[in-house]
Amino acid sequence: MTDAVLNRPPVHALLADGTTVCIRSVVPGDHAQLEGLYEEMSPEHLRLRFFAASRRSAALSADRACAPPHPGYRALLAETKGRVIGLAEYETGDDKDSAEISVAVADGLHHRGVGTLLVEHLVSAARAEGISAFTADALSENHEVLRLFADLGLRTARRFDGPEVRCTIALDASDTYLTAVEERGRAADAASLAPLLRPDVVAVVGAGRKPGSIGRAILHHLRSGGFTGRLFAVNPAARSILGVPSHPSVSALPRTPDLVVVAVPAAAVPVTAEECGKAGARALLVVTAGLDAEQSQALLSACRSYGMRLVGPNCLGVSNTDPELRLDATFAAGHPRPGTAGVAVQSGGIGIALLDGLSRLGIGVSSFASLGDKFDVSGNDMLQWWESDGRTGLALLHLESFGNPRAFSRTARRVTRRMPLLTVDAGRTDAGRRAAASHTAAAATRTMTRQALFTQAGITATRSVGELLETAALLHSQPLPRGARVAIVTNAGGAGVLAADACAEAGLALPAFTPETVEGLLAVLPEGAAIGNPVDATAAVTEQQLGACVDGLTRCAGIDAVLVALVPTAVAEATGDDLVRALTRAPAQRGRPVAVVRLEQALPVELLPADGGTVPAYAEPLAAARALAHAAARSAWLARPAGTVPELPDVDTRRAHTIVEAYLDAPPDGGWLDPRASADLLSCYGIPQVPWAWAETEDDAVLAANRLRGFDGRVVMKAHWPGLMHKTQQHALHLDLRGESQVRAAFRDLETRFAGLTTGVVVQPLAARGTELFAGVVQDEVFGPLVLFGLGGTATEVLADHAARLAPLTDHDVHDLITSPRCAPLLFGAHGNGPVDLEGLEQLLLRLSRMAADLPQLAEADFNPVLAAPGQVTVLDARIRLLPRRPHDPYLRRLR
Question: Mean pLDDT over all residues of the chain?
Answer without folding.
Answer: 91
